[in-house]
Write a structure and sequence with these properties.
GO terms for molecular function: nucleoside triphosphate diphosphatase activity. With 216 residues, the protein is an alpha/beta fold. It contains seven helices and seven strands.
Length: 216
């Protein structure tokens, strides 16, 4: 039996620049976002945003605008917290994100109970919906006299769902898995069987864009 092959970490100039100059911060407690950051291979800390995520969705022209605005508020809140309580002179590189599921351009919330979860799943059953993730990045300028840099963008991923009998959707709702998830399902959990095809970035569904590591 051959020895396990050793795979080294991805090493690109941006990673070295961050490692040498910044404290990388993930402004999220999401296990899925944490998993993606673990794969980057850079040391980072988690600082959770206190932003209540209560922006009026109806005031935004598109779901993309909403997730970018929410992610930006999360990042700003964490940046303010770190500047007030963190180590003086430390330079931060903060990444925040927000993700929503939409159907017919309507943002789907987390279902309040199992019956609402079934109704939401029925609205997605056999059709196609979208997942939007917005990302906001705040980068301290290495010259302390300058304002930090702000970057924000979004991405959309289309998801086609298989069509199932209502009894299958009810069985899934009974697991409780849909209750803490926007759109009433989690592709990384027990809802893995629902999507038929993914059009776009898989990791966008997992709550943060896969090209984030390369863009850092």
């Amino acid at each position: 039996m051959s020895a396990p092959r050793t795979v080294s970490r991805l090493n690109i100039p941006a990673f070295a620049r961050i490692r040498e100059n910044y404290t990388l911060i993930l402004a999220s407690s999401s296990p899925r976002r944490k998993g993606i950051f673990d794969n980057i291979g850079l040391p980072y800390s988690i600082v959770v945003s206190d932003f209540p995520e209560n922006l009026d969705k109806a005031s935004f022209e598109s779901p993309a605008d909403y997730v970018v605005a929410t992610a930006s508020e999360k990042a700003k809140g964490v940046y303010k917290k770190l500047k007030e309580t963190g180590e003086p002179g430390k330079k931060y590189f903060i990444v925040a994100a927000d993700t929503v599921v939409t159907n017919e351009n309507k943002i789907l919330e987390k279902p309040e109970d199992k019956s609402k979860a079934v109704a939401m799943l029925q609205s997605l059953n056999g059709g196609r919906h979208s997942v939007y993730s917005g990302v906001s990045i705040i980068i301290d300028d290495l010259d302390s006299d300058k304002e930090p840099q702000y970057h924000a963008f979004s991405d959309e991923t289309g998801v086609e769902c298989y069509e199932f009998d209502t009894s299958i959707l009810e069985s899934y709702a009974e697991t409780g898995d849909p209750l803490d998830k926007a759109g009433a399902y989690g592709y990384q959990g027990q809802g893995y069987f629902l999507p038929k095809a993914i059009h776009g970035d898989y990791y966008n569904i997992a709550s943060i864009n896969s090209f984030i590591p390369v863009c850092l």
